[in-house]
Amino acid sequence: MLPTGTTMSRVTTPMNRAEKNQRLPEAGCAHTRGLTDAWLTDHGHSIAEVHQWLDDNGGFCDCEVLANSEQAWREATGRR
Q1: Would you write out the chain's pLDDT as a tens digit for each of its 80 residues?
Q2: What is the DSSP letter of 68?
Q3: What is the pTM of this model?
């Protein structure tokens, strides 16, 4: 579980699966976090702090964020 007040505890929901499934194939994975960063900015989250968490949880590019990080986020935030 994440400590209250940490950036990832304030991320209340990951990008929903329908949005992920639509946006990534349209844009393709550029091996960056461009779509992830746009989503974080749109939702008012600190990119630098979230990047650190993503690095620790296998989210090094948009496709890895989608494939590897959602379950880690659910476990870390207690949302299953």
Answers
A1: 444 455 554 555 555 656 666 666 666 678 889 888 988 888 888 899 889 989 988 889 988 888 888 778 778 777 76
A2: I
A3: 0.67
Largest CA distance in the chain: 36
Alpha-carbon distances, residue 71 vs 21, 24, 26, 27, 78 (angstroms): 16, 18, 23, 23, 10
Rounded CA-CA distance 15/17 in Å is 6
Closest by CA position to 79, among listed 15, 12, 4: 12
Residues of the domain holding 41: 7-77
1 within a domain of the structure (yes/no): no
Tokens of 12: 């209340």
Domain count along the chain: 1
- Count other C-beta atoms under 10 Å from residue 18's C-beta: 8
